Amino acid sequence: MPPESKPFESLRRPFGKRLKNAFSMQGTSSRTTYVVIAACTFALLLIGWIVVTGHDWVMPIFLPSPASILVRLATLAEDGTLWSDVSSSLYRIMVGFLCAFIGALAVGILIGAYRFWEAALEPLIDFVRYMPVVAFVPLTILWTGTGDAQKFLIIWIGTFFQQALMFKDNIKRVPRDYASLGRTLGLSGRQVLLRIVVPSALPDIWDTLRISLGWAWTWVVLAELVAADSGIGYRITVAQRYFQTDTAIGYILVLGILGLVTDQTMKAVHRKLFGYAR
Predict the structure, then answer these.
(1) How far apart are the first and last CA of the chain?
(2) CA 108 to CA 118: how far, in whole Å?
(3) Which ranges of the chain would DSSP assign to H, the alpha helix?
(4) Which domain holds residue 40?
């Protein structure tokens, strides 16, 4: 092998080794390898989309080209429609999800730490969480009208009960030895809960929060599909009514981008705050 090719060989070998390790079961990989693999996946999907639409294999009314969708989104952004819809949905997400999180965390800690509250509340929460959120949409319109309160309520129903049970599991996964150590040091039951158990469960609680945030996006769009005059779901409904497929798919892509950004941001915050948990 010529000497000048050896440096390139040494560059290829580490990445190939990392890639091979990523294919192994429960293997590890660097952040760079992760990003490269993820970017390649998106690139392949985009190339396939361009090929399909560029050869007219699918009619534009069913699947517009990426370029036409970008043009449409740019037009909506220029006249302010896109930003208005996104801000409306973000506002509803923040309020509804925050209300659900505060209540679910309190209930989850109670039923995770105290047997009485577990017996009193967990069966009821289990009972309600299997009821489809879609069935509550017409009822919430009757109860609260078609304003933002109805969207808050749908998000709350869709996330509170699931979160409460997941927070309970987060609390129960804290080793009992931690609580025993606190009692040995003379802490009261409340002090053990607030100063040992809950802080120990915080990494898992943050992960639960990240996962359940995705549900909130689903439920706010559902609520806006039925009764709204703004928001991402509302704009998708209007686009469907007038066969504006480029607008509908564009807003769906915007929704996916927002979800991806928030999810990756929360993952980064988790690594920053709870690096010790790894």
Answers:
(1) 43
(2) 9
(3) 6-23, 31-54, 66-78, 81-113, 115-129, 136-144, 148-172, 176-184, 189-192, 198-226, 232-241, 245-273
(4) 3-54
Residue owning tokens 């009757």: 142
Together in a domain, 112 and 24? no
How large is the average pLDDT for residues 208-236?
90
Report how many domains make up the chain: 2
Average pLDDT over residues 88-110: 96
Q: What is the pLDDT of residue 189?
A: 84
Closest by CA to 63, choosing from 53, 74, 50, is 53
Residue 9 pLDDT level (bands cut at 50, 70, 90): very low
Residue 98 included in any domain: yes
Structure tokens given for 163: 């979160």
Tell which phi-psi region holds residue 132, choosing left (phi > 0), alpha (psi between -120 and 50) or beta. beta
Tokens in use for 250?
Answer: 């564009």
